[in-house]
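Backbone geometry:
***
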Amino acid sequence: MKSLIYLLVIVLLFASCAGENTEPADEVVSPVTEIGEPSWQQIYSDYFADGLYQGVHDIQTAEHTAADRGMFINIGSDMPPYRNDRNPPLTDDDGTVFVALSCVGSIFRYGLGGEVDGEVVTFIQQGFEYDVEVKIEAGSNILYRNGTALTMDAAPFHKGRTLYFPIAAVADALGHYTWFNERTNELQISYTAVEIYVWNENRDSSAEGLRYAIFQCRDNERDLSEVFAGGVSDFDEIEKQFDRVPPGLIGLTPLYRIAGHKIQYEDAQAIEYRLIDSFGYVVGVRRRLIDELPLIIQGTGGFSDEWFSMQLLALGESGLKETGSHTYRFMYLRENRQPMMLRIEVMPDGSGVLHFALCDGEINDWGGELIEVTQKSLSTTQVNEFLELLEAVGFREIPLSEDTGYYMLGGAWWVIEGVRDGGYHLIERQSPEEGSDVYRIGELFVELWGGDINLY
């Protein structure tokens, strides 16, 4: 009933676009121009049931088609594409996007209510734990969110009898996620009503340690102490609260550690299926590592540094740069396969020790346990063979990365490090060409180990 009241408020207070009188006034408060081919569009992100692929379809500019029922659908925005030729979105010289107040019902479909009192417009976003009230006024760039004043980049203005307001500022204040693609003039808006957390308190990852919590979604990352305090051991207790969830998307946040405390894949699937049964869709899963992550790889880029470091930590490794010892390391990361590491320590007498480590899968909320750690001795002859190859290919002069001019889907990541005489060198490649200098180094690592490893 509450949702129906909100919908009625929208219908009564925000008249339809078609009936709007758009005759321009003599003066326009803000200089604006019409956006070419404006549209609020929908992004589909398909999360396949086997968990092996997560991708994004092309943004659709008009009619969108239903996705195959055999896959989970992550919807970045569950509203239909917004396009209105009578009152199109407008933009100013700074790129701020404005929409007509009369069209707000076509853009926000997430339990939004409101009222208009003269030049003051109040939006009320229904929430799971609390409502959010946002007030704006024509001619003022001050926005009030639950009574707190915030400054917008631009003020609402009249064009004829139509009131236009900056959509991104209002949407952000209401708790909606917005993203504008300047290249395509597209603005995506979505509202996640709740976040459902799942984690495992048991080091052995047994199902008895599973815990769940549900909260209203917020912009900033929720403090873990609050999450853990709200945890329950029976998902039925979470499901009982679903009737209080307002219209919007559903967020699922698995919490995980580098070692242990995993959520078994079958348990994760069961949770997602229950969400589908209740809501008909699952919004993008946002996995969150709760361990502190020291960056033992640095220089490949923010996300890559974190990802590579996380895999090495799970493999039982630490930073080479700080050791100062004569050491070389090769980490081989095959897509959706077991991370592997080979490390050669050169001893003072010229001999060496070759260390090997293997995990059962990529480090995430359901996998990444260390399953094999072994080592073997290398003769002086074997170590010299390796060092001579590094000298021949000019290891220290090989650049960190290589611009191939294209992006490769799939393949394997190669990370090769070396420390000698206090100097450190790092190389990363994606499936280097067979016979290349980088490939030859990785190949010799494997040959010295003697294992059956298929490089690509």
Remarks:
- The chain is about 20% helix and 30% strand.
- Residues 1-83 have pLDDT under 50 and may be disordered.
- The chain has three domains: 2-41+77-190, 192-289, 307-449.
